[in-house]
C-alpha cells in the first residue's frame, strides 16, 4: 500500500477528526508526515493548476472546525474550501445539520498572499452565518457563485477587519486530488479535490 493510501485508510471513520482518539490522531500524524515526505510538488504555490479549485475537508485537528460539531441540536456536515488563485481568494464553507428546517451554514471569505513556495498569509474579510432555507442555499457551488457575484444574504453577513483576523498556512503536500496544509495554530488540514 502507498503512503497516500495508508493516510486515507487512517483517516477513514474519523468524521474529519471529530471521532479520532488520541491514539488515532498520533497514527494519522505519522501517516501525514509520510505523505509529506513524498510530496511530488516541492513548490506548491507555483503549481496553481493544482491549487486552484474546489476542495472538501476530510481531516483536521483545528479546534474551531471540530467545535462546530458541538453546537446544540446540530452536527457539522461537509466542510469545503474553494480556492481562486486568479483573485487570491479562499472561501471556506461548513454545512450544519440538525432539526428539520434549521439547517445552517457558516462561511468565511479570505484573501491570501503567497510568501514563498509553500506559505500563504491569510486575511479574513467576510463572514456569513445563517439558515440554509433563508439564504436559499442549494449547493456549495451555487452559494460561492452568489458570493462572487456580490450578493448580500438574509443572514448574519458582515465584513471582518482583516488587520485583526490573520494567519498563515503552509501547503506541505499537493497533487491532482489531495492537499495537506499546516496552519499557524498548529492545525493540520487534509483535503480532497471535488
CATH topology: Lipocalin
Helix coverage percent:
10-25%
CATH architectural category: Beta Barrel
Low-pLDDT runs of 5+ residues are none
Give the C-alpha Rg.
Answer: 17 Å
Helix tally? 6
Summarize the main sheet: 8 strands, antiparallel, barrel
Mean pLDDT: 92
Beta fraction of the residues? 35-45%
CATH class: Mainly Beta
Question: Would you tell me the structural class of the helices and strands?
Answer: alpha+beta
Q: What's the total number of strands?
A: 9
Q: Name the overall outline.
A: globular
* Overall structural domain count: 1
Quote the distance from N terminus to C terminus. 23 Å
Order of helices and strands: HHHEHEEEEHHEEEE
| Major beta sheet, strand line-up | 1-2-3-4-5-7-8-9
Walk me through the topology.
Blueprint lengths: L2 H9 L10 H15 L11 H4 L1 E8 L2 H5 L6 E11 L4 E10 L5 E11 L4 E13 H4 L4 H9 L7 E4 L6 E9 L3 E6 L4 E6 L1
Antiparallel strand pairs: 1-2, 1-9, 2-3, 3-4, 4-5, 5-6, 5-7, 7-8, 8-9
Describe the structure.
Helices cover 24% and strands 40% of the residues. It is of the alpha+beta class. The protein has a single domain, classed as Lipocalin (Beta Barrel), CATH 2.40.128.280. The chain has an eight-stranded antiparallel barrel. A hairpin with a 4-residue loop joins strand 8 (178-183) and strand 9. The longest helix is centred in the N-terminal third of the chain and has 15 residues, at 22-36. The chain is globular. The protein starts with a helix and ends with a strand.
